[in-house]
Amino acid sequence: MALNNSVRNRGLALLVAGTLGLAGCATTPGYERTQQGAVIGTLGGAAAGAVIGNQSGNPRTGAVIGAAVGGLLGAGIGRYLDNQQRELEQRLAAERAANEVNIQRVNNGQALNVTMNSQAFFRFGTAEIVGDGHRILDNVADVLNRYPESRVTITGHTDSVGDAAFNQRLSQQRAQAVMSYLASRGVASSRMVAQGMGESNPIASNGTEAGRQLNRRVEILITPTAS
User: Fold this and answer.
1) 130-165 as b/e, with b when 16 or more CB fall inside 10 Å?
2) Contact at 8 Å (CB) between 78 and 86?
3) I need a surface site. Which of 38, 69, 102, 114 has the fewest CB within 10 A?
């Protein structure tokens, strides 16, 4: 019983410490995602901890400890992404203003998506990177190298003009070209995967040129990994 009390007290102390830490962030601009990560981590940790605690005969203690650890882990992931997002936004400010690059949080704030306009990166109908594409990817690679604890999924997309099979191949080739370029700038290949979606996942109408331009894109999804 003494051991159980000790574990319970330690879990409660962690939970209190995590709560106080989040309270300190609550008034700091730019930490909304950190708080959201903490909440998600707390809920997930509590559920997992309850299962573990149930196996040891004390689900309540397990839930408390799981909530505390999960909350702290979630806050850490949120802060990790906050920092990456801030750096990417600073480095790519001009491209964002020109609508060549869009940076946003996805998956309930637990991942970061960098969307690049294919027109600004590739020659028409090819997977050859041109123009500002090299400089933009240099900046992306530098940030990825500074934050190595993440998986990187690179996805190519096209509009619906032309043959669907050709569009599928082109989207895969463009995603692969981006991955190869990032690898040439030091991003570990083991962290990355490239995939093509062709015309199957539009984000705008293919009935207008403006919509087709939005659909021609490459997305870099950055998902932190627990370390």
Assistant:
1) eeebeebbebbbebbeebeebebbbbbbbbbeeeee
2) no
3) 102
Its pTM stands at: 0.70
Kind plus residue range of the DSSP H or E element containing 221: strand 217-224
Which residue is it, tokens 């410490």?
A: 17
Q: What is the DSSP string of 116-183?
A: EEGGGTB-TTS--B-TTHHHHHHHHHHHHHH--SEEEEEEEE--SSS-HHHHHHHHHHHHHHHHHHHH
Give the model's pLDDT for residue 76: 63
Range of the domain at 61: 2-88
Positive or negative, the CA dihedral 205, 209, 215, 220 is negative
Q: What is the reported pLDDT for 57?
A: 62
Round to whole Å and give the CA distance between 41 and 191. 23
- Give kind and range of the element (H or E) at residue 113: strand 111-117
Measured distance CA(40)–CA(1) in Å, rounded: 31
Cα angle for residues 193, 197, 202 (degrees, 5° grid):
130
- Assess contact for 31 and 51: CB atoms under 8 A: no
Same domain assignment for residues 185 and 111: yes
Last residue within a domain, chosen from 38, 60, 88: 88
**Residue 1 in this model has a pLDDT that exceeds 50:** no
- Kindly state whether residues 189 and 121 are assigned to the same domain: yes
The CA distance from 186 to 107, in Å, is 27
The residue from 57, 88, 119 where one domain ends is 88
